[in-house]
## 1
Amino acid sequence: MYGPNRQFAEQYRKVGVTTSVVDADPHKLVALLLAGACERIRTAEASLQRNDQPRKGKAIGEACAIVGHLNGSLDHEAGGEIAANLSALYDFIIMRLTEANLHNDPTALKEALGLVMEIDSAWNAIPADHRQVRPVAAP
């Protein structure tokens, strides 16, 4: 009964996400990635509560990939100490996500989510007039 409608809704959602990414400036792209990481970690938390191990593992893997991409996009030359500190924080987040996956540890998921949310909050607090076309040290 809901099959075709659900399929159309999913296609519409994908078009909306694609449009957001295509139209986004570098600051917005980082914000979208941070939001995506938070969403995946929340999915992992819910999956862990339901004992849905495959979904938990997939969500954590996706969150790690996003955080890894953010880490890889840091400009250490231009970002200096800020970039180095963010890189260490991203490494720690990935470590906690990995531990959460291996040990079914909801505390590690909460910790990782809290850290990503703090980075997201700080990133979104940057005033528009201080955002550059190409970020110096994207989180």
## 2
Amino acid sequence: MKRGPRKYSPARPSSGRKSKAEAIRVWDKLDTSKRGYVTVHDVLKQAKFLETEFPDFIREYESVARDGRVTRVAFLDYCVGRSAPAEDRARKVDMVQLRSMFDEVAGPAGQIRVADLIKHRARIQAVFPPLLEKFSEIDLSMSSTVSWAELEVYAGGTGEWLEYQLDRVVGLELLKQQIRQFHHSVVLDKKREDAGNKVKTGGKYHMIFQGNPGTGKTSLARVIAQLLHRIGIIQTDLLVEVQRDKLVAEYVGQTGPKTQKVIEQAKQGVLFIDEAYRLSQDTGKSDFGREAIEQLMGAMNDPPGKAPIMVFAGYADDMDLFMQANSGLYRRIGYTFDFSDYTPGELAEILNSIVRGAGFKLAPQLSANHFQRLGNVIEAHTLEQAREMMNGGLCERLFDFAKQSLDAREAVVSATNPSLEITEGDIVEACRRIPPPPARDGRRDARDAGDQTMLLRRTEAQLRTAKSEVQRLHAHLRAVKAVSAQNVAWKDDAMPEYSFRFWCRYSLGCLCHFSRRAARACSEACRCPKRSSPKVGSTPVIQIKESDSRPELLSP
């Protein structure tokens, strides 16, 4: 008997993967109540449908479910393959073919743009569809373009992705090695579990970040969250940042629920607790930090998904005391990462990144020999204690002050095409305006106990700052008078003198005796946002006269 042509029927994927449209159709059948999640009860109700349409989901339900349920997001991720480990994805990509496709699509520009995606859609779909589907995820620089380095990182797996992220971090070589070792350990444990071995790793992903402010603890915490998500340890790359006030309440019985609420909020990602040592510091009044610690320790016993991976951050010496006072925490934390202070040379690199990111540039002599000259200037004109207490934050202040110095010069010459180049003089001026660091937490550093060296250096720094500020105002005043004299005849002798006071950014009272026009120019020269209205009769700390070539320091 002659049979007609057989109807074509696309084979169902054997690996549990479906198109997004198919996945949504199956989900709508499961989640009839529109709750956003399904349980074992829902699966049993639709058992016959699933055995026919999606038997792999029944077999792999335990690996998809979290807390006894499967969310819509987790189900769709499972169906369309988003949860596939990066290492598996890498094995399926022919890197030679991928490079050939990139060169063809990107062209001489070396960057794939949205217009290129549309123009070469068919070619991309045939070689590497994720470039169309996950363009924003591949675009690590968030520039709305994709470079070869970014595409290679995405196709290569978590190891390549991690190296790409670490390459963007200045310095911290010991820390980078610690993070690489952490990555290797986590990947090996995950492979052991996937092979059916019951390894005891639950709770051992919790970690300590110890180091001074400005060393990149929060930024690296985001990298860790993304890394754990890519490996498959946590469901999302969510990072929840909190301090003591977000965990501890004011009254009895409120701290436990308040802390638990934060734990629930972060349970699918990472909980970053900054200045964690403050939880166990005695404030001299009713303190419930201990209750928050107990609540956190209870959650640390739960596996990822039921509780977040926790990162405890703070100063190295304080974190040591914190761990010694809380042995239960110490037993539950598997990793400690050390964030060292930046060297002047590394600060120079960071400052250059900030300058370029803002659209400015450094003078050529500052950039030569890997910013050696810039590093020398920073080291010579800033206090070591300020560098230790601010680190990367110091560079942000330096750029702000250096730009103000550049703007002051450009304003005097009334440039129609203002310069973008920051000079060594601008950097020196910026360094002089950095205030000395305060004593941390109202205490003196242990290494300075018993002597007055630190106090003396801070006082000297304040004096240098005051002198620099006065000299800057005098220079600006002379420049303003020189420019104004070209068009306006000054008649100071005919105008009575009077006094006024303004607060500079370092809270030093300045009493200025000028003619009205000169006083107005001096007031305009001070761009301090804290400047108050002119006042008369205040006791001077620094007295300035128009005829002075140098400021005269007086006793209060």
